[in-house]
Queue: 2 jobs
Job 1
Amino acid sequence: MKINTDEYSIAIDDFLLRMEAIPSENHPDTQIALDKLGRLFHIALAKLDFYETPLDERQKNGNSLILYRNGEPDMTRFFQQREMTGAGNVVYYTFYQPADCAAWTNEELEKLRVLEKTIFAFHGRIRTMRLAEFMTFYDQDLKIHNLTYFIKHMGQIIAQGRIGDFAAAFFNLTHFSAVNQQVGRERGTEIMLSFIQQLSSDFCEDEIVCRVGGDNFVTFFLKSHLNYVMDHFSGTEITVDDITRPRLVISAAAGYYMIPEDCKAATDIMDCISAASNIARNLSKESFVFYDEQLKQRVNESKIIQDLFPEAIRKQEFQVYYQPKYDIKENKVIGAEALCRWFHDGTMIMPGRFIPILEQSKAICALDFYMLEHVCMDIQKWLKEGTPVVKVSVNLSRCHFGDMNLLQDILDIIDKYRIPHEYIEIELTETTTDVSFRDLKRIVYGLQKQGISTAIDDFGIGYSSLNLLRELPWDILKIDRSFLAEKPDAPEQNHVMLKHIIAMAQEMGIRCIVEGVESPDQVRLLKENKCYYVQGFLFDKPLARDVFESRLSQLSN
Ligand code: C2E
Ligand code: MG
Ligand code: MG
């Protein structure tokens, strides 16, 4: 059969034009695009077989797709071409002809070959576009949408005038590095994905969850779903292993923003949820924070503190206050903790207001060294004057971890003032990540080697306490004051943990000191448990240097 050239070029033009607009291999418009050529060549069926790899091809483990079908039966004769994509996938294109039709001529076969190559090229372009879209809008690791997509999606909803129906949240999975340590990284990723999938399982098309990076995510959802999202973040059970089925409860700290109708830019939404989440993670007792006017003020205040800090430290606005530590058996002061107070414009600012903010940058490190240096200056002065001196503990933020010079910097300050090492103690808090654990280990061993004692501060409120206790040679365990609190609804549980922590530490040869002792009943309780070192308002609040000096002077009497 001779093909009519005019008809052929019209059919080819039509095919090329329509294929241009087709967004996926399995799009139904392929049937329409192939319509004229199909009829011209008497194609009964055109199909595509796709194999991920040549091995899948050998095992016939692939997917088939009908590209064109004209409904004619008995398709015995066919023409087939095998192709390999740049990514190593194998694709077959097969064109069938009805049995009762004259066989394709060589010229027709040649044209069919060209047609097949053209379809393959179109499909290649679709795959490339898909890959580009995947690289741009998806997280490569979890294969869920990324931040770029999140911003684009919110921009589209703003353009449609529907943004007032939605809320957004930036969330961070709580203690996820500890989860990774417990179950391994690969399993950790599965758990992370499962937590995200469960969240989005009840979402409609416009609601999304995207990964920012690491264990940080953002979500955009209908305001009517707020309770559902908050419930999910407050703790969701995830099954770790299908065989033994242990379960982990995963929770998240989140910053929310109820988006107003007049919101103009997706990036503004991003700014609000990141600020709120930052506060939820670092500065708030609650694990969720809503962006509102009050929060806006807090963000401003935090900026003001960060801006004021360099000048404040230059002008020595920070002062060391000393809170004595007591031996309640011997009734005497056995040490003190150096606590920072900031005097600015005639008011005293407590550390709770500025330390968490300074911890968001490395500014806290400068403050810690300043405090250590001022403590050393005071001790040097007392030693010179003949005032009795006790061991002073200095707090060191975990922001120092990772600083390879930390140990040397501490020693340089202490040695600059020729302070005997036994007068200094360093208080460190718990840590959850592998990296900081290694740093902590290096620092604790290093200090111990130099005769500087180390205390683990706020013990029991963190996460990896027992591990930390077993693996590092701490001198002192500072038990957090929350263990002294009475639980009115569970009187029999009161202080059970406190009792066991004290017993355990003593058995391990670590001395205990209990923070936040405020009542004679608590003193009685501690004596009953043979814990004799305390620090608390019942004995003394943190004292200005001159008041503390007079306490020290009394020691000689
Ligand atoms: P911390 O190291 O656990 O210090 C003990 C905190 O408990 C102090 O609060 C102290 O005043 C308070 N406290 C002591 N006894 C009692 C009590 O009987 N009842 C109650 N309710 N509280 C008591 P402060 O001075 O406000 O310091 C808070 C936190 O700020 C410190 O907790 C420490 O984590 C941090 N901090 C203070 N100064 C520094 C510093 O120079 N560097 C670093 N990195 N952190 C510091
Ligand atoms: Mg402390
Ligand atoms: Mg403490």
Job 2
Amino acid sequence: MARLLVVEDDPFVRSALIRQLTEASHTVRSVGTALEALREVAQVGFDLVVLDLGLPDLDGAQALKMLRGITDVPVIVATARDDEAEIIRLLTDGADDYLVKPFSVAHLTARMAAVLRRAGGGAVAGEPAPSDVLCVGGLSVAPLRRRAELDGAALDLTRREFDLLSYLAGRPGVVVPRKELLAEVWQQSYGDDQTIDVHLSWLRRKLGETAARPRYLHTVRGVGVKLEPPSAEPPVPPAHPPTALEHR
Ligand code: CA
């Protein structure tokens, strides 16, 4: 658990971040401008700041410099531009790490754990508690370690597949709307259903199931997707009862 300040002006991204980070038992405060962020860090102690660089009041690099002028709290910058020169400049100017938008909260959580570990002392550091492993039937997912296993065998998942599985595993038995998956896993407020369908079908293949014969992943048409333990295998039909003929 860490005390976090999220600086993000997009209300949609912000509320998704707050919700998920709070669910991961962090204490989260959030502001939408650089000046508010400066005021917050001057008044409240934080373990880490997540700083969006596209803020309405100050240029991101400027905001980072001013922040560094008053505190050495670890800062992860979130940038919309995958621009190497810009990223190098930010890291030189005092950012501890960066994420290119859109990013998933699972990705942010992993970066946060690494930054806090380096900062020496965040409670996210070290091995996660056993409760940080989500178990659904024979499936276990450890979001911080980014490991997933099915019946004890490690699953080889891409980043997005892992994020999707991890998000669903945190809500077993709940039908998660597609819109929510786009927002929470893809960090997009809109998008096309095909993106989700394609990743679902890859994930299904790795879980050894198909849409026609689902075990863990269930698509609820027109609503969303749900992950739940497979229902018991249908009982093997009893052997044909002995006939009078066999008794003879
Ligand atoms: Ca922004």
